[in-house]
Amino acid sequence: MSTAVRPQLAACPGCVAAPNGTIEQAPTEARLALSLPSIHCQACISTVERGLNAVPGVRSARVNLTLKRALIEADPEVRALDLVPVLERLGFEAHELNLAALNATQTDQAGRELLMRLAVAFFASMNVMLLSISVWSGASDATRDMFHWISAAITFPAILFAGQPFFRNAWQALRVGRLNMDVPIVLAIVLALLTSLWETSLSGEHAYFDAALTLTFFLLAGRYLDHRTRAVARSAAEELAALEVPRALRLDSAGQPVEVAVADLVIDDHILVRPGGRMPVDGVVLEGQSELDRSLLTGETLPVFAEAGSLISAGEVNLTGPLVVGATAVGTQSSLHQLADLVAIAESGRSRYTSLADRAAKLYAPGVHILSALAFLGWYLFTFDLRVALNIAAAVLIITCPCALGLAVPAVTTAASGRLFKKGMLIKHSTALERLAEVDTVVFDKTGTLTNGTPQCDDFALLSPQDQQLAYALALGSDHPLSAAICRAAEQAGVRPAVVTGLQEVTGFGTEASYHDRQVRLGRAAWVGAEPGAKTAAYLDSGAGRAQALTFSDSLRPGAAEAVEALQKANKNVWLISGDTEGAVRDLAERLKIQHWIASALPQDKSDCVAELSEQGQRVLMVGDGLNDTAALAAAHVSISPASALDAARVASDIVLLGQDLAPIAEACVVAQKATYRIRENFRIATLYNVIAVPLAVAGLATPLVAALAMSTSSITVSLNALRLR
Amino acid sequence: MSVLSYLIPISLFLGGIGLVGFLYTVRSNQYDDPEGDARRILNDEWDDHPKP
């Protein structure tokens, strides 16, 4: 599959937001999965399902419109590759998905568990709240006691089930001697429950069962939002990975190609790589001549010649001729994988960034505990009544408990990620938004990032009409990217191909044919007898005198110019660092008005440059797609890669750009800044509310009614504030 | 007072039915394809004959 035709994912976050999995009636053990990026309505569902069910061997097919996917249960001999043309005839773009890579998203167990706990907490809190309202509105004596006992009977099992995520996290933190947000939460819940039970048994007036439950409910809601945001990003990222079905053609002992999974290849296997295919392994060319596209690995736009004896590495694309490759390193040993592993190590350095929420929690947790301990001590020394002192300490813990804090960050990041997802950006890392907001320098890679990596023929129009026809005819004989560019230019100009005979491709050199008894050629400078120029060019020898050069330049990605301009307007330094030759890079920098540029950069140079900028105190955003960018992507403060990037680059980056358009990058910076501003604003709201409520609680004036009102008000305020971001 | 002795259990029971219903829908994957399910009701394939 070519990397260019990647489906645009659903435009709205709702389309992929739901927990994933198979429907009850759907094939229980789907054997095949197809991605259907273009389906959107009921008619599409019916057509696809009917079409697939009509294929012999298909037992059942079910479309999931939310995920834009079809799950098919079929006999073992049915292959996804046979079903794709069926759907294409029906007018639907279809891509095979690698089910093994998708398995993690098939059932979202964690999300489902959170949802159930959320439901239980909601049910219990609503019932207990009804009983509490009766108490607050005047139930007294035996009735109040009975209501309290019923509340206790509902609350204990409900909290035991619903609060488990907090208990577990708090226990894990305490075991290694740390404090996290969950420790004060658990302490508040447990203390509230125990004092309430004690009060109830002494037929006291105040019980905080409802507060303990609503606290759990609000915090679970925050947890669930947080989980869902990340699940959306994860499932979309996994779908991107699953689109690359790794297959290779292995030559068996008789020299016949057999299709096998890349995972089954071993060293010394002979592998046939057809033109257009990607190298599955590191190896050495045994037979054949061809040209290789190394742009994803090195950033070079020009194809590299390869013949028997040349070394190749995994990820390079074979362009013109079939090659037989002897594998020297496979799977995790291949250079591609080793780089990805290096990146994974570099990435762990990223986790050193503490999010705003964690920083707030670090200040918050000890503060709250000290405050409540002081309240306890003060009241005990004042009244010598253990019951009163404990009640007040519990009230302080409940009132200060971070419902607002627990909701503030997830609500804002969910709203912001949803907004960016609509624009075609996928936030992978939980602190990516906060880091993106601090960016003041943007480093772009050239090939595949600012440009499409597909050449565009610049001076086709300068040829005489006859030569244009001839060039078109010769270009049709090859799949080489330069030939494809000539074909595109010819089609745009409305040129018809000349009638030539004996058209044939000379692998690695070009195409030749005879035209009116003349030998005509299109290809390399040396081959047609011309002087090679500085720019990327193909040479047309029309058999009449000297050859003519056709020069090429890389076409700009849509939105690239807008993105660079908007970033510069926002006072960010824009850099262009590329592994390509100086001429091509200078050309592009001038076109986009980028002042700082570096050409012929090796992967090490790129990451060094990013590190140097960081040392100067700049926060660097790296945008890149190739293997040569991965080190720089991991070294940067925050990184973005397009969906067409290699897997390793996508893994290394915090944000994936799903569409072709680059323009959302500038907007993402603005949204991220707004989001962090909202998070801080929410913290301020929460602090303000604590400043008002805590003295009340310490003074012993916080009744359960006041606690419930204050808690709900602050939670709802921060949620509404987060929604303003949408 | 006596009215409470049956109203509270009834309200808990009804709420419990709702909760169990919700848990059932979560467990049987009914939230997997909300978009598709919303569109499937427009399918007229089974209008005249119920689904076999």
Would you kindly provide a written description of the structure presented here, covering whatever features stand out?
The complex is a heterodimer of chains A (726) and B (52). Chain A is α+β, with helices and mostly antiparallel strands. Helix content of chain A is 51%, strand content 17%. Chain A folds into five domains: 30-97, Alpha-Beta Plaits (2-Layer Sandwich), CATH 3.30.70; 109-234 and 355-405, no CATH class; 240-337, Calcium-transporting ATPase, cytoplasmic transduction domain A; 425-450 and 557-658, Rossmann fold, CATH 3.40.50.1000; 453-555, Calcium-transporting ATPase, cytoplasmic domain N, CATH 3.40.1110.10. In chain A, helix 4 runs antiparallel to helix 9 (209-242), helix 5 (109-136) runs antiparallel to helix 6 and helix 6 (141-162) packs parallel to helix 9 (209-242). Chain B has helices at residues 2-27, 34-40. Chain B starts with a helix and ends in a 12-residue tail after the last helix. The A-B interface holds A 14-15, 18-24, 41-42, 45-46, 63-67, 112, 115-116, 119-120, 123, 126-127, 130-131, 143, 146, 150, 154 and B 1, 4, 8, 11-12, 15-16, 18-19, 22-23, 26-36, 39-40, 42-43, 45.
